[in-house]
């Protein structure tokens, strides 16, 4: 598996995985727009020509928000999500970011376990953040020295 920056070639696969994984997916146009956003870092995990997963973030000054993380069903429970988050953290450190914040569905036990394993801590809750179905989001954060 290779983890690298997302290019225009992967945008259609990323948009398809969005539709598969999320009730309110980003459009292909929105995903493609991140390629030109100087605040964004999007990484893909590729197994040959197949997209195993991706992660997307935006950084303002020295704080980063992880907006999207998805792993294709056939690649789940194989360390792809962990590898993507670790690669994103390394990229962000190189860019001068000092922390990573994200929201996760309260009911998403698998994701919460992954983030706990990677050192994220719960710092808050956004009531009714998610729609379809309506659910609270936990706000998780990880900080590091640069």
Explained architecture:
This protein has 146 residues and is α+β, with helices and mostly antiparallel strands. Helix content is 29%, strand content 40%. It has a domain at 2-103: Gcn5-related N-acetyltransferase (GNAT) (Aminopeptidase), CATH 3.40.630.30. The chain has helices at residues 11-21, 28-33, 80-95, 109-117; strands spanning 2-5, 40-47, 50-60, 63-71, 99-105, 121-130, 135-143. The protein has a 7-stranded mixed β-sheet with strand order 1-2-3-4-5-7-6, sandwiched between helices.
Shape: globular
Gap from first CA to last CA: 28 Å
On the 0-100 scale, what is the average pLDDT?
96
Q: Return the CATH architecture of one domain.
A: 3-Layer(aba) Sandwich
How would you classify the helix and strand content by structural class?
alpha+beta
Rg over CA atoms, rounded to whole Å, is: 14 Å
Query: What is the overall number of helices?
Result: 4
Poorly predicted runs are none
Strand order of the largest sheet: 1-2-3-4-5-7-6
What fold name stands as the CATH topology of one domain?
Aminopeptidase
